[in-house]
Structure formats: structure tokens, C-alpha cells
Amino acid sequence: MCPVIGPGEHLRLCPQDYTCCSSVMEEALARKSEVDFLSAIDDTSQFLLTTFTLRHRKFDEFFRELIDMAEKSMNQMFTKTYGKLYTQNARVFQDLFVELRRYYSGGNVSLGEVLAEFWSRLVERVFSLVNPQYQFSEEYLECVSKHAEQLQPFGDLPRKLRIQARQTNYVSRAFIASRALVQGLATGREIVSKAAKLSAGGECVRALMRQWYCPLCRGTPSLRPCRGLCLNVMKGCLANQADLDAEWNNFIDALVQVSEKLEGPFNMELAVDSIAVKVSEAIMHMQENSVSISTKVFQGCGSPRPAPGRSRRSPREQGGNRRPFRTYSPEEKPTTAAGTNLDRLVSDLKERLRPMRGFWVSLPYTLCNDDKMAADLTNEDRCWNGQTRGRYLPDVTGDGLVSQINNPEVEVDIARPDVRTRQLIMELRVATNRLRHAQTGQDTDFID
């Protein structure tokens, strides 16, 4: 409370007719105004920051667990199914999951190339296993790989796991969408953190002081600013943040749309589970068609050398006596991440994302709806109008930087957009573009 009321000629911000504030008090209250304002912005945006932080962690942990479980299940099932044939060639499968994790973690990895390399290495190993009576050099196996595109030793199964003929496959689309969503949630967290920490300019601080603490200097500390006054001050102070809103809404929409893809055609749970099943089916396909495949390879690559201690037999002869590989029985198929449900995660995320639309443009209204910040509409005649107790008459200005040209409370240079805000807008555009491409199964890092 003010101890003494006296002339206010010394004041620079508040009305000068009478006051109980010294110049030092006025300066201190101006600094407090800035602290209060930035604290209010931080508090109001906290739910955004918390949502992005927690959802990012949950999805990231979930996707990583899915990949771990898929590898573990494949290892268990293939060890049981193929025994030494698998364990002796396990490095091929281990390398696949190393690269899948590297891609998911944001590494500069082409998923199409990773899967193509896996199939190439696998066809070499399986071809050797179905032709044990021959000895194949590295050069010969490279020839086998080159013929694989025409011979399709695994049938159409590789098409379902990798990019081919300009069409994205199931696993690739799921990994692209999952990575894009997790990266998008991280971007959202960073954008909110940066936008909420933009400093208040001098004109903004002076306007905040006039609306919040000049009543105190007049001896009426309980008098709240009129809502119209509060809105004009906040719109002037938050003009640049309001300009984030269009790109922010696009970003939120893109996050929702990608998450919906994960519920349906790009489901990561089903995708990682399918890897072991499709690989097993591919191996079976090559084994069942080994005679015709081997014959064509021998025609294209030449006759291989017989293995030491083995007599050369025809492909038809070698195909008749070998114990065939077997596929999974349904109960052996890989399990998903224990105790976790992707649909539930996505549903929760969408429920939290949708209210975020329009956050930045509505921020002045959110702040001024707080009864600690401004008087409510029922007190329009009993509020602080910037000069005294009474109705606030000026119109409330529009949203965004350009609309502040006629703001009666905050002088805003509309010809000088805030550089940091423009940078955040560009970051949002880049993130939105990545998310939109992910909706169609495209990875922006590898688009020609």
C-alpha cells in the first residue's frame, strides 16, 4: 500500500496528477511487470510443454521397445526354427536391426537402401544353403545378387518390406511415420520453449506497468485493468507470437494426421511384427523354388565349383533329399511390446493436440480471462481504464503484428518483425513438411 499521496510530476509511466509512488518505485514496478508477464506466459504454455515432453518420451520408449521385441522374437523363433543355419548367419539379421535403429534415431540412413542390402545379403546366404554341394566365391554370390531383381527368389515379399518401383512398403511407411511423429513432438517441445521465452520489449513493459501497477500508485491496488485495456496491451506485447498461429495450426494438424496413419495403414506394431514373418516366408519361397532359381542363376552366372568332398549333382537332384525349412505356426509369431497399446497412445495424443490449435492467437484472451490479470466483463464501469476508474472506450485491436498499427496502448513497429519469431515460423514449416510427406510414406531426407 502507498504510504503518502502527493503530486506525480516525477512519474514517467503513470498519470501525473497525484500518486504515492516515487520514481524508484515506478521503475521497480515496471521490472516486476515484466517478470509477472513472462511468468504468466510460462505458466500458460506449460501444458503445451508438458504434453510434448511426456508424449515424446512415451512414443519414443514405445517404438524402441517394439524394435527390441521384434529382434528378440525373430532371434528366438529363427533359432528354434533353423537352428545352426540361423545362428551361423545371425549377423545378417543383427545388422538389419542395427540399421533400423539408426534410421529411427535420426541417422542419415536410407531405409530403402537398408532393406535392399538386407535382401541382397540374405539371398546370397540362402542360395548357398540350398546348394550345399557347391562352393561359391564372393564374385559368384555378387552375380547371384545382381540376378535377384529379375529372378525374384523371394517372390513379392521384399516389395512388402522395402521401397521399390516408386511405391512405399508397409515397414518403410511405418518407420518413416513413427520417426516423423517422434521428431515432430520434439520440435513442438522446442518451439514452445523458445516462443515462451521471447523477451518483452520496452514499449510492452511500459504498457504492462501502466495497466497493472499504476492503480497501486493511485492508492487503489485492488483495481483491475479493464478487459479491453488488457487485451490491447497483451496483443501488442504478443504480436509476434500471434503470427506463429497459422503455421502452428498446420503443424498440429499434421501431427494429428500422422498419428492417425499410425492407427491404420502405417501401424508400427504390425509392421515390426511382420518383419520376421515375411523373412521366414521369403526363405521358404526360395527353398521351394530352389531348383528353378538355381538353374537360372547357373545359366546367368556360370557353373559353380563343386564343394570339396561332394559330387556335383543337378539342381533337381539336390532338391529332392533335403529337409525343407518350415514357417512359423501362429503361436510362434513375434509378440508386441508388453503391456503397451499404440491405439491408446495415439488416441491420448490426439485428444491433447486438438485443443492446441489457435493457442498463440488466443493467448491474450487466455491471459486476460484470468481475474488476477484483468477485471471481468461485469465490471466494465468499475475497472482501471489506463487513467482512472471507468469504462475503457478504445476498440480492441486485431491479431498479429500488422494489426498493431493502431494499437492505442503499445507502440509496435510493424515494419520490424521479430527475427526469432520468423525463425520459429520457418522451423514449423520444415517440421510440417516432413510430417506431410510422412503421411504418404515419403522420407524428406531422401527425396530427389
Automatic annotation (TrEMBL):
Domain of life per record: Eukaryota
UniProt record, GO biological process: cell migration; regulation of protein localization to membrane; regulation of signal transduction; smoothened signaling pathway
Membrane topology, from the record: Lipid-anchor; GPI-anchor
Cellular location(s): Cell membrane
A GO cellular component annotation in the UniProt record: synapse
One protein family per Pfam: Glypican
Repeat among keywords: no
Predominant location category: membrane
Key words of the record: Cell membrane, Glycoprotein, GPI-anchor, Heparan sulfate, Lipoprotein, Membrane, Proteoglycan, Signal
Region of interest (Disordered), residue spans: 297-339
PANTHER family, alphabetized: GLYPICAN (PTHR10822), GLYPICAN-2 (PTHR10822:SF24)
Membership in a protein family: Belongs to the glypican family.
Role played: Cell surface proteoglycan.
Protein name: Glypican 2
